[in-house]
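Issue 218. Parser rejects a valid record. Input:
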Amino acid sequence: MPIPNLRYPKALLVASLLAMSSPLFAAELPEGTVISKANIDSIQNDTFMGHKISDLLTEKMAWFVRNHNKKYPLVKSPPLVLDAKYWEATKKYSGQVKFNTQTREVTGYVAGKPFPDIDPADPFAGDKVIWNYYYGASTGSDINQDVMFTLANKSGYESSSRWTYQRIYNKGRLWDGDSAFSDKDVLNKLVLVALTPQDLKGVGTFTTQYDIAGKPDDQWAYIKSARRIRRLSGNAWMDNVGGFDFINDDINIWNSRPSKYKSIKLLGKRWILANIDYSKVNAARVTSKAGTAGEWPQIDYSDPIAQSVQGVTPVEVWVVEGTPPPEHPYSKKIVYEDVNTNVIYYGEAYDKKGEFWRWQNYHFEQRRGAKSGMKYISVAGGEYADLKAQHVTFYMTPGVNDTGLNATTFNADILETLQ
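Output the parser choked on:
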C-alpha cells in the first residue's frame, strides 16, 4: 500500500520534532507530591517550584530513595529569615574582615556574615563559605535545649536518652553585649550531658572552643567511677560522641575551625531539597511513651535508614568538600550550606578508602530569642546514619535561644551539678 504524501504545516512539524526531542509530559508537580522509589524515575524531568526534580536531588539523596525507599514529601515552606540586626552587622563589619591566603585564617570579624559576597572563581571560596557558617551562624547569644537521642539498627528500635545541650557564644552576639566571657580568645563554650536514663546520667563533656589558630579545644568529662572531672586529649574533636554515629567534629555537621582542615574546596552552587519547618515533628512527641519506641511516632523502625522528613522545599546551597588532616577518621566531608542563611543541611562523610560512610541530615525551624525577640534559625532535629554499621542516631531538639545563660558559672564545674 503506498504511503500517502502528508503535508504538515512547517510550524506544526517543528513543534512535533521538539516534542520528540524533549522529555514527554514534563509537568510542575503539586505540593504534597512524595518522591519515592515508585516514581523517582518517571518524575525526573518534572519540576517543583520551577526547579527540575533531577536537579534538586543530590546523588546521595537519589541513592537513598532507590536503595532504601526513602521518601521526600514536597512542600512550599516559608523561607528561613535572618534578623535585620544580623544584616545590619554584616553591612557594618564585613568590610573589615580579612582572609589570609597563607594561613587560611580570618581576622577582623565582629558580627554578622564575614563574607557576604562569595566569588565562585576565588580559589579560597570554599574556605570563606565555611567561615560564614563557623563565625556567622544565626543561633543567638546562647542556646539551651533538650536533645532526645533515639538509636536504631537494622533490627529496629535500640534505645533512647535525653541530654542537655547548652552553648554560649562569645562572638557575633547581637543582643546583650559584644562578649560573654572575659577571655576574648574564647569562641564559645558547650555542655552536652546525658540526663536520662539513670545508668547514663552524667555522661558527657564540657568544651571550650578558642578563636586562636592552632590552639586545641579544651574538653572535660565527669568520670563517674572516680567522681572527678578529667581533662581530655586535645584531639577530642575527632573522637566519637557516646555510642552515637557522629564525632565531635560532626556536631552541627561542621564543628571545627576551618583552618584545621588541610583544604576546603568549593564544588559548586545549586538547588536541593531540605526541611526547614520541623516544628510539627517535635510537637508530635508522645511524652507518656518517653524512653520507648513509641515516643516519636514518625520513626519507622522497619528500615531506620529510610526515614522521611515531614516535608522538603527547594533551597539554594553552596556545595563544599573538606579534606581533614591524616589522623582524622574521614578522608573527606561534603556539606551543603545555605547561600543566604549559612545553615548546613546535609553532610556526607567518607572513610579512608573514599567510600561513603556516614550521612548527616539536619532539619531546621525559625525561632525567636526568648529574651531578645530576635529571629534565629535553629536545628530542630535530624539523623546521623552509619551506612556500614546500618545504625542510625535520631535526634530531636526542642529548645530556646537567648535564654540568658549565666556565663560566670558556665565552666567545667557544671558537669558535677548535672549528676
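Fixed in the parser; the record now loads. The CA atoms of residues 367 and 376 lie 5 Å apart.
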